[in-house]
Amino acid sequence: MNQTYALTAVAVVVLVTLLLGALGLRISRTTSDFYVASRTVGPRLNAAAISGEYLSAASFLGVAGLVLLQGPGMLWYPVGYTAGYVVLLALVAAPLRRSGAYTLPDFAEARLESRTVRRIAVLFVVGVGWLYLLPQLQGAGLTLEVLTGAPHWAGGLVVAGVVSLAVAAGGMRSITFVQAFQYWLKLTALLVPAFFLIAAWAGDGAPRATFDAPAVFREATSVTLAQDVRLSVKEPLAVTVTGQVDGRSHVAEPLVLAAGEHAVRAHARLEFAPDTPVPDAREEPGAGAGTWSEPPSGELREYRLYATYGLILATFLGTMGLPHVAVRFYTSPNGRAARRTTLAVLGLVGAFYLLPPVYGALGRIYAPELALTGDADAAVLVLPERMLGGVLGELLGALLAGGAFAAFLSTASGLTMAVAGVLHQDVLPTRGVRSFRSAALLAILVPLGVSVAVTAVPVADAVGLAFAVSASSFCPLLVLGIWWRGLTPPGAVAGLVTGGGAALSAVLATRAGLAPTGWTHTMLAWPAAWSVPLGFLTMVVVSLATRSRIPAGTAATLARLHLPEVVAGDRAGGRR
Amino acid sequence: MTGAGQALLAVLAVAGAALMLGAGWAAGRWHARRGERLAGLDLGTPVERATFHTLHTASLAAPPLRAGLTEDAARKAARRLRSLLGTEALCLTDREAVLAWDGPGADHHQRRAMARVAVMLESGRSQSVRTECQRPDCPLKWAVFAPLTGEDGMLGALVAYGSRESAVLVRAATELARWVSVQLELSELDRSRTRLMEAEIKALRAQISPHFIFNSLAAIASFVRTDPERARELLLEFADFTRYSFRRHGDFTTLAEELRSIQQYLALAGARFGDRLKVTLQVAPEVLPVALPFLCLQPLVENAVKHGLEDSTEECRITITAQDAGPDAVITVEDNGVGMDPELLRRILAGERAGSSSGVGLPNVDERIRQVYGDAYGPVMETGVGAGMKVTVRIPKYRAGVHSSASVQALPPQA
Hints:
The complex is a heterodimer.
Chain A: H1 3-29, H2 34-37, H3 43-54, H4 57-70, H5 76-98, H6 104-112, H7 115-148, H8 154-168, H9 175-203, E1 221-224, E2 229-233, E3 237-245, E4 248-257, E5 260-264, E6 269-272, E7 280-283, H10 301-318, H11 323-328, H12 335-352, H13 355-366, H14 370-373, H15 379-387, H16 390-427, H17 433-453, H18 459-483, H19 489-511, H20 519-525, H21 528-545, H22 554-562, H23 565-575
Antiparallel strand pairs in A: 1-6, 2-5, 2-7, 3-4, 3-6
Helix pairs in contact in A: 1-9, 1-16, 3-9, 3-12, 4-13, 4-18, 5-10, 5-12, 5-18, 6-7, 6-18, 7-8, 7-16, 7-17, 7-18, 7-19, 8-16, 8-17, 9-13, 9-16, 10-18, 10-21, 13-15, 15-16, 16-17, 18-19, 18-21, 19-20, 19-21
Chain B: H1 3-34, H2 46-65, H3 71-85, E1 89-94, E2 98-102, H4 106-123, E3 127-130, E4 142-150, E5 153-162, H5 167-224, H6 228-245, E6 252-254, H7 255-273, E7 277-283, E8 291-293, H8 298-310, E9 316-325, E10 328-335, H9 342-349, H10 361-373, E11 380-383, E12 389-396
Parallel strand pairs in B: 7-9
Antiparallel strand pairs in B: 1-2, 1-5, 3-4, 4-5, 6-8, 9-10, 10-12, 11-12
Helix pairs in contact in B: 2-3, 5-6, 5-7, 6-7, 7-8
């Protein structure tokens, strides 16, 4: 891939983001016309901003990578990422806005009138935020590695640097415009190359991607493995090997691998002839935490079914608890606008998610060797060069690289601001501008440090973990808090700690590679299917047991959450 | 994996889930009961520990009572008070009804208790009486009625029930009633302070009117013949502005509403001063929905106009910005007018120079913002003689209890 184009594209995206952030306010609002200046953010602009912040590396790169690796079963990811907004629209959006809460801990305090619940909610906001930031930084590392061969920590460092710089320079002063711009940039960056790629695919005789049989190398391909890999071969396979296979060293020797499993050492180069099937690759056991995401690709059907349910629950119910999504609803002027915004988000996000599976399917046809090297997440980036070549391919590749960086930047800055807001309000002692900046630094540096330390996992899967924790902690809190009078502070605390805590520890255990194999592993890697019901159940049962602790202002709070603002205002007017 | 192994794992998983559920339950109960537990540290002699315990329980009962003698406060306080007295049951009443009953016997004792309270309120003295309860299993045999007094006489009664007559109980209940009365008096003090604040807001609303209204009307009158269309627009602005300023309900508004009112104010001031008034506005749309105290920015703008136009003959430049700063909104109002001596400003803010040219505006804004958001959010005012003035206000996007009322525009015109 041409480094100059790609690096230029990334640099342009970074610069435009910073400049828009710093100057957007000036361009759009230097006027003495109050009517223009005091116009609130409309639903469509806000929806584009929410989508811009929401569509992360997991969506831009990860979904295509998973479809390439594991086929159409992975389409549940984009479906779930989108459908989360249906639940949000129906149950949460308008009441959350009417509560006047800026962050989720604010909501907990407003609804339950308890500082303890607030503090626990703070823990989970920070936990979910960091879990979500981690794959963003790792994805950035992967992108920069593919583009330039830079070490894997460099991309994360760049993203963290840009975000810190923006915050240090006084923050993104017109963050809504920046995020909305990022959405359209990401959509364009996927849409335009997709047209060219589909045209090239049609010109190629429209070969079909095979998802029920192993993918096939279309031309002579050489693959260099980055790590130790265990290949499972279904029928004898002819390759030319340079490196160590099954304990023996070869130097450019032809070799026939018999059916069964073969251990291949890192740095081995395998050359495949055209029309050979791509062997199934799996990292050497004991190679660290890398194996945790295996169960959905495991052969046992019931594992996959269970994992799919876990995924569906996590994504459907987890969206409402994402800290950077929740804070954006504050920008809507009222509950009705918040609902319209969510509807528009559904449209925008839904349109976007039509594209990544296209890349996944094309990748399965044209870049199957990515499944061997563990860089499936890079499928989106390498396809134009692979299929089109020439200057056009390089330019489109650069566009995609820019779009991918927009994805890292927007999500990372949204999450950093959300986590920093919570840290600033509830954790760090002093107040003021400086305290907020140090909170932002803390919010981005911790996940950056962790991202360097731990092994990379598929981006979409890692994001799924954050969704699982969010679904098990904030979903019960929000849904019960909005729709059930009987929720008590002790119930909320117990539910958050039990449901969210269980999901969090399961997720951390799998990420640390502590979980045993088999069913237990699947249960821990996909905790939402049991931890969400557990959270709901605990919250309800403990609330029923502590009925005397129902907050005194519950009736008034619920009236404010559910009545349109004008009516509620009239009531308030009548009281005074 | 074998079927048996899977079954074992399933059992283990269920057991684990049950364990977590139990832990959650325990955590919830612990949270619920935590406040009631004794401060059981192994310190001091038994007498000292008893004193600590009593003081601790009393300190827990005090905060609810500071809200006044309401049902909610009484319910929260009654439990603490009963554990303080160690009686079978305890009840708090106002002059008409039982507010809270802690302990058994609420069903059949309440009505009789109120009859007794009525008698006691007549005399104003504590009484110890036999309850003459017919039920054999009811432990409430003796009752002590002690009056709760406030500034304006009797507020209600504290009734303590015991299983036998005891002089200790009579004395303890009377002392406890006296302590509760002190707390209630403090709550009245709080309330009168709030009333003072409300009176100041009213004063602020009233203070806007006279000069401004005369000047505006005179300015509008000058346009009636030369530019009737503009005169009409200005009159409408005037109507909207006064409607907002004189509205009755709600302590809080949104930044968007407050800015609209400022715009109307500046349009009217502009009519009077013509081209001398230049306004620059930079508002991040993200912070427009922020809730903030009613009329807390307008006095700042008024002050800026006064400094820039009325006390000088130069062109007046006013800059208003509202920025998004994470969990806060930062609002600044800046003018290039005559400014003022910082020492004088300090004295005005401290209330030592009431009735000066700045009137009630600045100190009132300062005090109200500090009262709502705490001293950390006090407005920052930078000024010097001849150097203009810049006021920076930080408003947190969320603060418990701060909710903006409905938009004025949405209410019918006569509201």
